[in-house]
Design brief:
The complex is a heterodimer of chains A (729) and B (325). With 729 residues, chain A is α+β, with helices and mostly antiparallel strands. Chain A contains 21 helices and 25 strands. In chain A, helix 11 packs antiparallel against helix 13 and helix 18 runs antiparallel to helix 19. With 325 residues, chain B is mostly helical. The chains are: A alpha+beta (729), B mainly alpha (325). At the A-B interface, helix 1, helix 4, helix 8, helix 16 and helix 21 of A face helix 2, helix 3, helix 6, helix 8 and helix 9 of B.
Amino acid sequence: MRPAPGVALRLPRRLAAAAVLLSLSACDGRPWNDPHAAEREGQRVFYSLFSSRTRNLDPVRTYNRDEATLIDNIYEPPLEYHYLKRPYELQPLTLERMPEVVYYDEAGAVLPATAPAPAYSVYTLTLKRGIRYQPHPAFAVDAAGEPLYRFADARQSRRYKTLDDFAQSGTRELRAEDYVYQIKRMADPELQLPIWDIVSGYIVGLTELREAIVAQRAAGSGWLNLQTLPLEGVQVLDPYTFTIRLRGKYPQFKYWLAFHFFAPIPMEVDRFYAQPGLRDRNISLAFYPVGTGAFMMTRHQPTREIVLERNPNYHEDYYPRAGEPGDAEAGLLTDAGKPLPFLDKVVFSMEKEPIPAWTKFMQGYYDVSGVNRESFDQAVKVNVDGIGLSDEMIARGIVLFRTIDAATYYLGFNMTDEVVGGDSERARKLRRAIAIAYDESEQISIFLNGRGEVAMSPVPPGIFGYRPGRAGLNPYVFDWRAGAVQRKPLEEARRLLAEAGYPRGRDARSGRPLVLNMDMTSGSSGDSARQVWLIKQFEKIDIQLNIRATDYNRFQEKMEKGAAQLFFWGWFADYPDAENFLFLLYGPNGRAGSGGAGVNSANYSSARYDALFDRVKTMEDTPERMALIEQMLAIFHRDLPWASAYHPQAFVLNNGWVKNFKPHGVSQATLKYLDVDLAARARSQREWNRPVWWPLALLGLALLVVTVPGYRAYRARQRRSVVGEEGSC
Amino acid sequence: MLTYIARRLLYALPILFGVNVLTFALFFLVNTPEQMAQVQLGGKFTSPEAVANWKAERGYDRPLFINRDAAGLGVLTDTIFFEKSVRLFVFDFGKSDEGRNIGAEIRERMWPSLAIQVPTLIVGIAVNISFALVVVLFRASLFELAAMVLCIALFSISTVFYIIGSQFFFGKLWHLVPVSGYLEGLGAVRFLLLPIIIGVVAGIGASTRLYRSIFLEEIHRDYVRTARSKGVSELQVLFRHLLPNAMIPILTGVVVVIPSLFMGSLLMESFFGIPGLGSYTLDAIQAQDFAIVRSMVFLGSVLYIAGLLLTDISYTWVDPRVRLS
């Protein structure tokens, strides 16, 4: 069968076009290896990357940092963190002013702000006027003001494959009811709010709303307009004002108000995405966010590229005029008072493999990069002065930012285990002996390239409750000598071990060696050098360590059953408050038997600690609170449910043309402050990526060297074979 | 022939059913729906209620094979197996564990996969056959010896080495192509060049040796001698007489892989950041999204069976003596 003439012509034409395009790409001044689309050149674009596909961008559902990096720049909760100030400070974002909080007793009488245990707290939030949503088809209306895109069934919506297929869009002003709608969405069991157990315990009426939603869904199918269901604890006072009523006192609630869980979702958007057939084509809030923020998502290809573009309807917002000491000198206040955002676009490209990602950063195609194991030696040099940039990085104008994350990783004991757990003095001595033997500084130095700080408590630096130096020292494991923290000598550990009933690592009663089991997921135990190192830490005091590598699911199962003995765990802060770390040791939060909800993975339980926590969690940051936290940490030091811990240090590299970058340990909504020097970037990219042609020329020459003699040999053979055959006949 | 095709398609049904049962049993015996929920929800506060909701939303709260609480056909149809596996027979892939439409993703991602695989296959066949014929042309010479040593070296080297090495030299050191990435439309050409070249080069060793042995078997046949005796040049003998007669064994290897081209290349797509079905499968395995993995295993089986059927049919095209019945 012959192909149709059109088809036959089309293919060579396309091939020719591709060849022309390829050759033109060398003529337009852009480097050949530039991975970015040509049309973006000249625009104020910031190039970044992501390493794992997005799962769900619904603000009621997302609970990881990578996705927050995207949606926190699109959605606007009522509050935000100040970009420059440290310690972290909240400020109004869509609010006129910070929320007003009034406390009430059971009878409804107003209580003073200092009341320790009010029955209710009522937050009043007043919105700024004139904030508008990004353009979106959900807001498109016809002449009669009715929604333009309404589909009775999936057939009607079939022609809309992506959000771009909707030609018309609209916008409207942000209203208080939008925040209320989102809070109601939190009660929808289908949306699976990750912090449901927390908010449902505080927001009045949320549990009842969930029951009502379940009942409504059971009664009928189709989209459920949450506006029709009441929520007792959340009321709209006027189009710009609403109140949230909480049970008791919960000062940390203000931090949740800076979280995307509390971002506004208009009813129109929920209705639009709920239309028949759209979700089947991934047209949903989980895929296409709709917000009032500085950026809007214009491309979402979770396996390739995500593009945020400047929201043309973004409200008045200005770069901060003040920061912390040193910010002005660092050039971070050069743009003070200028309108935000500075960038036109932010392009996130998928990079699963670290080596190509690093190469592209070094070629100038990514503006920002982390430092991982593969790139550490090239990026950083370690000498007697500490850690600094390598000469190559300095020559390229690359800037290194180092910041201690608001996070804590730890080696935990299962406190329900009969050997290492429990409240007995014997077990406590055993835990102390292990804590002394386990050298966290060495672990950080060898396996993290020095990117971390030994933790004395769950509370990381920068958060109220953290005590540096001697004041924060764990006296059971460390000494303060010559103005520095020193781990106690191993003799002390051996003595404690003997007192615990294991002289020289053997059970005094049975004579059997003490064997402890450490459960790890396969990924983390894959590094055999680390396993050997871990075993040696315990060998120092004659304890045999058995490492049980398992997959993630089995590991979770063991933790859930309380069957692990020693394990590694970590916690990233939701908000910069000590409560968010101290609750990792709160008895009722025990992990075993919690079905995965418990954050106290060590299953630690101390009546005194719990009582103090109950007081501390509702207090403002006062000296009295600090004193109580110190008491809690003293209990933690004495009982040692964690053998060791560290706070990770993040290394971020920026190319020299990135402006206004300052790492923020909590907020991801920082893209609006960034800017790039386009000319400097284009210049560096050209300079760093000049094509090297000689290898191709050499290859061509090599082919020629093989082909010409080959052809000659063939010709000679053709002639010779005839003669030969004749001769042989 | 239609009867033959119909019969082969009917044979395929129990095979696919077996693959389905096996895949289903493997995934659900290794990981319970509760564990899948834990992985997918993955957050800090994964409560039992959240797990229950996750299971209910995805239909994992039903019995595995038999629903004794249901009435009538519901005993069999209102089960996880029917909902998640039997529907695959009508290519209803459903939603991934993270809630996205798998069918829509497959339709979108098969194009980048094809953009690498089709040129790699076509150019690869052309290069391999030509190279094998040239080797046959210079048989029993030092050139043949050198070519065979080169072939053994080429297929002894891991594909990962080709990928990382070429990324280093062509992308990082010589700045001739992007190290990785992908653009739509004609912009993709720059990103596809290197993966295609690697695909072709990595395949030269094994294929050339195979084709060479096929050609050497044919080279002493009567029709070759006849062609030579007519004064046909050696090149024409090889390309116009020998090649068409050696097509059946070549087709066996080539046609069977044509449908599988849709499935993409796990390694190539992952290293070069190409958003095809290969990287889709790999991502799903890493994320333990078994709805996707199940769908891709099923699709792979269907395409493999289709490839075998196509191979049989292609015999009749290249050799009129072959009749399917």
